[in-house]
Amino acid sequence: MPDAVASTGLSDKLQNKRKRQADDSSKQEQPEGAATNAEGSKKKKQKKNKKNKKKTDQDGEQSKKPEDKEGIDDSIGKMDGRLLGDHFAQKAKRLDKQLSAVELSDLSVPDSAFLDTSSFTAARDLDQLPDFLKAFSPKGTDLSKSSEQNGTPHTLVISGAALRAANVVRALRSFQTKESIVGKLFAKHIKLEEAKQFLQRARSGICAGTPTRIADLIESGTLKLDELERIVIDGSHIDQKQRGIFDMKETHIPLLKLLTRPEVSKRYGASKKGVKILVF
């Protein structure tokens, strides 16, 4: 009898020991699973956050793109001569506060100098520039023709920057022939001496450039204004910083000085060899 009791007690002890081992084993395995689940959850959260961040970055880029694009100031094309003359004067006064009343008067462009182009309803982007020129040229005018005298254009197109002027040249290729080259009168990759040499050896009906470079070439005598009929100002265009040719002192003041040169201004409104300003 004592042997049976002892055997039973030993059996109970073995069972209890095995039960404790099983419990311990279960407890040890549980944290591993919990850690694995936590790690998986963390990775999912990081992936989600990364995705959200990427979306935010993309949204940020999209929100900035409209500000970085060039554009068109539609209000410019709606102005007649009187409004344009006042606009030019007000801009000059704001951009250079050191100008005296006399100096401002010397830089003023008369209303009669402008040709009213407000009837042109198409968007004033470069694709429309050839049609714009045709629309406001006398009937039967062939804009692809040029003077037999080298460096004597009938049309000057003035932009606020060299890069923009280069784009204008490309837009006007339809008027270029072997006998009449669209002139590049801007400083980007073209030295002043190179521009002088071009005007001395080539016939050019239309030239596109910037105010300062054009003025320098007139001063040098290589750009002749004897047969000039129209000055087209690339006025509606605004750059990536939302600035137009009238909004910057370094372009607007030289432009006014060019437009008020005696050899040009005396021909505004003239019946013979007159010159008109068109604002595109």
UniProtKB/TrEMBL annotation:
<dbReference type="GO" id="GO:0005634">
    <property type="term" value="C:nucleus"/>
</dbReference>
<dbReference type="InterPro" id="IPR032704">
    <property type="entry name" value="Cms1"/>
</dbReference>
<feature type="compositionally biased region" description="Basic residues">
    <location>
        <begin position="42"/>
        <end position="54"/>
    </location>
</feature>
<dbReference type="InterPro" id="IPR027417">
    <property type="entry name" value="P-loop_NTPase"/>
</dbReference>
<feature type="compositionally biased region" description="Basic and acidic residues">
    <location>
        <begin position="21"/>
        <end position="30"/>
    </location>
</feature>
<feature type="compositionally biased region" description="Basic and acidic residues">
    <location>
        <begin position="55"/>
        <end position="69"/>
    </location>
</feature>
<protein>
    <recommendedName>
        <fullName>Protein CMS1</fullName>
    </recommendedName>
</protein>
<dbReference type="Pfam" id="PF14617">
    <property type="entry name" value="CMS1"/>
</dbReference>
<feature type="region of interest" description="Disordered">
    <location>
        <begin position="1"/>
        <end position="78"/>
    </location>
</feature>
<dbReference type="GO" id="GO:0030686">
    <property type="term" value="C:90S preribosome"/>
</dbReference>
